[in-house]
Design brief:
Radius of gyration: 17 Å
Number of strands: 13
Order of helices and strands: EEEEHEEEEHEEHEHEHE
Distance between the termini: 36 Å
CATH architecture: 3-Layer(aba) Sandwich
Helix content: 10-25%
Strand content: 25-35%
Number of domains: 1
CATH topology: Rossmann fold
Largest sheet: 11 strands, mixed
Amino acid sequence: MRAVRVGIVTGSGTYALPGLQVSGASERATAFGAVVVTEGRLGGVEVVHVSRHEPGHRRLSNHVNHRANVLALRDAGAEAVLAVTVCGAVDPGLSLGSLIVFDDLHFLANRLPDGTLCTLHTEVGGAGRGHWVYELPFSEALRHALLDGARGAGHDVRDGGCYGHVDGPRFNTRAEIRMLAQCGVAAVSQTAGAETVLCGEAELPYALLGYVTDYANGVSAEPTPVSELARLVAASSDAFATSLSGAVGRLAGAAPPPVGVHLRFD
C-alpha cells in the first residue's frame, strides 16, 4: 500500500526538519512568488517541506507568503498538509511544553499579512472561483494522524481546541486576549489562519499541531519570561519532528478527502 505524499509546513524554531532525509531542494515558481521546497523522506514517507520563516527567521509573520507556500506544496505533489506552530496559551489549562491538535479556527479578519483578503481567487471570472463551504476547517483524518503520532512519541497532547490567528509581529494586549478567550480560543499564533483557508481553497486537506511556549498576556498571574519562551521554542523542534515522523506513517493508502465542498461558478 502506497503512502500519501505529505506536505509539511514548519514555523518559528524549526527551519530545517530534524530527521528529514533530504533528497533535494528547489525553488518553485508560483503565481504569487517563488518558494524553496525541500524534498525527502521522514519516517519512511516521501514529504515536501516548506519553512514559513526561512532559515535565520528571515521572514517575520508579516512577511510570510502564504499563497505561494500553499501552491508550491500542491505543485510539488503534496496530497495533504501537516503544519506546526509554536503558540501562546489562552486557555490556562494548557501546560507549557505541551502539544495541541486544533479542531476549530478563529480568523475573522480573513486577511493576508499585506492586508489583502485571504483567498486564491484573485481575478474576476477566474477559473475555479467559488466559496469554500465546511463544518469544521481541519481534516479529521490528519488530526487523528497527528494525535497518534504525538502520543506514539510519548508527548502530552490535547485533542481539540480553537486556534486563534492574530496579526504580528507584535504580541497581544490583555484586552485582546480576554476577547479571544470569550470566543473560546485555546491558543494563538500569527500564521496558521491563512494556511488553513488557502489549503481549503486549494482542496488540500490540512491539520495543525501547536506547541505551547508561553501564556498569552494576562492568562497567568506572572508573565512567561522571554528566556523561557525562547527555550521552549528551541525545544519545540524535536517534539514536532518526532510527532510528524509518527503521523506521516499513519497516512498509507488513499489521500484524505478535501475538507468540505466548493460552490463553484464555472
